[in-house]
Amino acid sequence: MSVASLLGFGRFALRRLVEMVFTLLVASFAVFGAMYLAPGSPASFLLSGRSASPQALAAINARYHLDDPFALRYVRWLGDVVQGDFGRSLTYRTDVSRLLADRLPTTLMLVGMALVVVVVVGLLLGRVAAVRGGAVDSAVLVATTLAIGTPSFVAAVLLQGLFAVQLGWFPSSGAGDGFWDMVFHLTLPAVALALYLIGLLARVTRTAMLEALDSEHVTVARSRGVPERLVIRRHVLRNSLGTLLTTGGLIVSTLLVCTVLVETAFSIGGIGQLLELSTSTKDFPTVQAVSLLIVGIFMAVNLLVDLVLPLVDPRITLGTRSAAA
Using an 8 Å Cβ cutoff, are 20 and 299 in contact? Predict the structure, then answer.
């Protein structure tokens, strides 16, 4: 890259980072405020339905700063978050940072396994459908339609009932201990998490490759006698990378969101199940921390896609995708 290109890339990256920080600030305000708009209060959960004297209730509100003005609570919380302190869980009576540190690796491993399944199977099905056509294309379209029409929670229940309960091939719950035991336990959840996105990626890959196959440079390459496998690899797949990479950002974000359903179905102790349990018990600090973490990962993935996209597809200039979005 030339000096001018490097400077342009640096300015673009800096601008996107500033936008990311601003968006995270807005998201933090929305996340913090949304919990206080929900019915109920942390004090009622801490009392477990028991009646309390005004003095006891005042002590609880003072300990957790529940009587402070909303703006003051938000500024205090945001200042702690910037320093890595997400507060203390009302449910688990421990630091939220420790809860995230204990559960995040499980979720990341589940998302990573599901992402591998999505990429391998989705790209393969899309490539086969585009290149083979005919009956193979029709079969892939039917299969992907079924996959897209099956929500992650439904897929989890079906896979759990068949392969865990009926056949007994895989565990029905838990995350396992140790790397390979975790891989074994998370196989069914990863497939359930990946099923919808396999159909999505396969269809996007098929469409992108069909468009590339009809392009002029592919016709020229074939007329010059270039072997078909090289045409597919050098001209078709390469020109489809921009679309596939953009879809990849959406895939990772969807995987993070859908972990809530899948982890709950398989009783996996990740941040998805933690978010579900914390929401039901009005554990404000934990819900806010997990929600902000998911938003942060989502934005980081999109930033990475924006930065890598011009490198894999020279036809796209810096900022084009962001402006289009």
Answer: yes
Structural tokens at position 29 = 């305000």
Which domains does the chain possess?
Answer: 104-324 (1.10.3720.10)
Task: Give the helix ranges, DSSP H, for 214-237.
Answer: 216-223, 228-230
Q: How far apart are CA 163 and CA 172, in angstroms?
A: 8
> How many angstroms separate the CA atoms of 39 and 200, rounded?
37
Give the pLDDT confidence of 37-91 residue by residue, as tens digits: 666 566 665 665 566 666 666 776 666 666 777 788 888 888 888 888 888 887 7
281 phi, psi to nearest 5 deg: -105, 10
Count of H helices and E strands in the chain? Answer: 14, 0
Q: What is the C-alpha separation between 200 and 149, in angstroms, rounded?
A: 10
Contacts of 58 (CB under 8 A, 6+ apart): 67
DSSP 261-294: HHHHHTT--SHHHHHHHHHHTT-HHHHHHHHHHH
- Decide if 89 contacts 95 (C-beta within 8 A): yes
Other CB atoms within 10 A of residue 170 CB: 19
Segment holding 50, helix H or strand E: none
Q: Give the model's pLDDT for residue 43.
A: 61
Locate 295 and state its tokens.
Answer: 């938003």
Which range has highest mean pLDDT (14-18, 106-110, 288-292)?
Answer: 106-110
- Residue type at position 43: A
CA angle 200, 205, 208 (to 5 degrees): 125
CB 110 within 8 A of CB 118: no
272, two tokens: 């998805």
Q: Which helix (H) or strand (E) element contains residue 51? A: none
End-to-end CA distance of the chain: 26
Torsion, Cα 12 13 15 18, to 10 degrees, reads 170
